Automatic annotation (TrEMBL):
It comes from Paenibacillus amylolyticus. GO terms for cellular component: cytosol. SUPFAM superfamilies: NAD(P)-linked oxidoreductase. This is Aldo/keto reductase. PANTHER family: NAD(P)-LINKED OXIDOREDUCTASE SUPERFAMILY PROTEIN, NADH-SPECIFIC METHYLGLYOXAL REDUCTASE-RELATED.
């Protein structure tokens, strides 16, 4: 499997695997996705991914308030090759100078590792306050690479300048990016990342199921969940024309709609983070990596997406442009 150059000593797979929906705590699988997944449910998923060469796992302390990290940690200790990506969320931090270190230590304990391969500031609550707290963590080796998530271009540049004063750098940016939500591209963030050797990780590439062809106005997403509220029957109806184009392009590659959504994100120079709860999701990721879309395919997809006039930011997001 081809890989993406991440640093001098580290390559990452072309798709990372997300664990937001693992575990049942607050802001986790049950409330966001309608899932109630246990270690027993997820062990085969982890095993299938590692066997397929997908070894980068993305989680956060706030996902299920620790339950996602705990499940991933129980699996990660079985494999030396696992790369761990987890996040510091300012909103759950204490009001003191080592609040980030405190939360990182709790994450590392749950994950059964002594360092985070990528440690993200989850959102830009206060760039000048939180970015400097990464510096001692990087110098101590507890954080190998730094990422910023949900930051706009000015915030990314500010964080980069703070780290540069200590001879350090941002290695990754992680923002919501999909056929329906290209805000980071339009704001110049993806170009900035390319120019500065920063890997752009795209999350919600499948729009939490809305771009998989598994749901429709007649077969809606689970009610009472974040994704069900974001993509109700009216919005799903507006997506039918885009789904049709995705099906047509998929037929050329013996691929599904979900495969095409992921392949598009890869073709745009990003590393998609795909939530996985079944072994079939791992198989889908592998298939998407094998697809090389043409320029014409990409143009058709983007025109069809824009014509839907559907753009659904997360309630935690602000406009990037």
């Amino acid at each position: 499997m081809k890989s993406v150059r991440f640093s001098k000593n580290t390559n990452v797979p072309p798709i990372a695997l997300g664990t937001w929906s693992w575990g049942t705590g607050e802001a986790g699988g049950k409330t966001v996705f309608g899932n109630q997944l246990t270690e027993a449910d997820l062990q085969p998923v982890f095993d299938a991914a590692m066997n397929a060469g997908l070894w980068l796992w993305d989680t956060a302390a706030v996902y299920g308030m620790g339950s996602s990290e705990s499940i991933l940690g129980s699996f990660a200790k079985q494999h030396d090759a696992v790369l761990i990506s987890t996040k510091f969320t300012p909103q759950i931090a204490g009001d003191h100078d080592n609040a980030m270190e405190e939360l990182l230590e709790e994450s590392l304990e749950r994950l059964h590792v002594d360092h985070a391969d990528i440690y993200w500031i989850h959102n830009p609550a206060d760039v000048k306050r939180w970015t400097p707290q990464l510096i001692p963590l990087m110098k101590s080796g507890k954080v190998r690479h730094v990422g910023v998530s949900n930051h706009n271009l000015d915030e990314i540049k500010l964080a980069a300048s703070i780290l540069a004063e200590e001879g350090l750098r941002i290695s990754a940016v992680q923002n919501h990016y999909s056929l329906l939500y290209r805000s980071s591209e339009k704001a110049g963030i993806i170009d900035y990342c390319t120019e500065n050797d920063i890997v752009f990780f795209s999350y919600m590439v499948l729009e939490q199921g809305a771009l998989t062809d598994k749901y429709s106005a007649q077969n809606p997403l689970p009610s009472g969940t974040r994704r069900g509220e974001a993509f109700g029957p009216d919005r799903l109806a507006k997506l039918e024309s885009l789904i049709h184009v995705m099906r047509e392009i998929g037929s050329k590659y013996s691929a599904s709609v979900a495969h095409i959504a992921m392949a598009w994100a890869i073709a745009k120079g990003t590393v998609p983070i795909i939530g996985v709860t079944k072994t079939s999701h791992v198989e889908d990721a592998v298939k998407a990596i094998e697809i090389t879309l043409t320029t014409d395919d990409i143009t058709k997809l983007q025109i069809a997406a824009e014509e839907t006039d559907v753009e659904v930011p997360g309630e935690w997001e602000k406009a990037m442009h």
